[in-house]
UniProtKB/TrEMBL annotation:
Transfers the 4'-phosphopantetheine moiety from coenzyme A to a Ser of acyl-carrier-protein. This is Holo-[acyl-carrier-protein] synthase. NCBIfam families: acpS (TIGR00516), pantethn_trn (TIGR00556). GO terms for cellular component: cytoplasm. Belongs to the P-Pant transferase superfamily. AcpS family. Its main location: cytoplasm. Signal peptide: none annotated.
Length: 133
């Protein structure tokens, strides 16, 4: 069953401006070390950060908290499954919010899609509760 749904759309140039103005202050505040390593080695660095930022916004909306109620930027990280498919890894406040969404006898599965085109980055997150097998 679907227990959460969120989406976000962001202009890449806004992230590019924020990176130029705040640099490490911004990246260290909002992104995990894994996300920083991946984004910093990309040719389209700002687009990579923008997609991850949009994913965090979408995930916080799917959790029903936004970036508040004890859920912080670094509590959510974009990671890849062995297949290469992106998903979200949640810790701290985000993990607690996720646990509150999922009914007993179920386990969470987070679906994530991210893309960028024409100066925008977009993300969709679906949180699904699957019966424990």
């Amino acid at each position: 069953m679907i227990v959460g749904l969120g989406s976000d759309l962001i202009q890449i140039h806004r992230v590019e401006q924020t990176l130029a103005k705040y640099g490490d202050r911004f990246t260290n505040r909002c992104f995990t070390e894994i996300e920083q390593k991946k984004s910093d080695r990309r040719a389209q660095r700002a687009a990579s950060y923008a997609k991850r930022f949009a994913a965090k916004e979408a995930c916080s909306k799917a959790l029903g908290t936004g970036i508040s109620w004890g859920v912080y930027w670094r509590d959510m990280g974009v990671v890849n499954l062995p297949s290469g498919k992106p998903t979200m890894h949640l810790t701290n406040g985000a993990a607690r919010a996720l646990a509150r969404l999922v009914p007993e006898g179920h386990e969470p599965h987070i679906h994530l899609t991210i893309t960028d085109d024409a100066g925008f980055a977009q993300a969709f997150v679906i949180i699904e509760a699957l019966p424990v097998k």
